[in-house]
């Protein structure tokens, strides 16, 4: 608990002592609580608080933790704070949404019972300005970068052909091109049949987009379901895909990407079993552009999303495991 003591002292500016809960109090807890958590006590802002450290992060489930914390809160009549060594961004948002107190040492402290919400290092990539690529413009950029075997694939297409290739209307492509021009990434050539030409080569284009914060997160939202719809093609995404592109171990949670219009169609037909914001056997990531388009052009892992969209979806996650995996993606699939 030295790391949690140090973190709390840095945050609160006072000496914090964390002690293991006495055995006579631990013995009153159900065995499954005893085996799942290390339980400590401390004082924060003159309030007695119970800290519960999850012993096995790979077996962490929010719905289960919520029930356990409620049991401990009732048993001790004190605020209970979950302590986690690491926490994926999607789980962080779900904990906050469910109003569960938690601490990730060195990264975030959220204790609603004490009206505390301090965040420090969950955003390693800071956007430099408010200008962003639109989803359709980002699709064009990534299509070009990923298409190593034909660097003129985009340049040789008229706006109309580009719209057909990427599954957009001519108007949508015109707006995407205007977005790319405003960001200084392309030049438009031709009079009657206009085409685009990128100002930078593949690597410089990627670095320009990343360093200037032009990227947009391809994920619109995440929902959880208990069954995967069988009549819609889905691609592995998030940590399920990251494990395929890097040395990172796969997570217990299974993730799949689906284009937003396909998702809304399934929703309208009531094809999403037990859809909710918190937990389920599968997590569906609803994408702003069609993940199938870039998976097809990349064509090295046809069952998962392309590596660069995946990279962008994790760019503001400071988990060290994630950042190491992103470095591997750049080394393996960009250069």
Commentary on this structure:
- The protein is of the alpha+beta class and 335 residues long.
- The chain folds into three domains: 2-119; 135-211, Winged helix-like DNA-binding domain superfamily/Winged helix DNA-binding domain (Arc Repressor Mutant, subunit A, Orthogonal Bundle); 219-334, no CATH class.
- It is built from 14 helices and 13 strands.
- It has helices at 2-12, 23-26, 31-36, 62-76, 89-97, 135-146, 159-166, 170-182, 202-211, 238-245, 260-268, 291-298, 307-313, 320-334; strands at residues 19-20, 37-44, 47-54, 80-83, 102-104, 108-111, 116-119, 186-189, 195-198, 219-225, 235-236, 254-259, 282-287.
- Strand 3, helix 4 (62-76) and strand 4 form a beta-alpha-beta unit.
- The model is unreliable at 120-129 (pLDDT under 50).
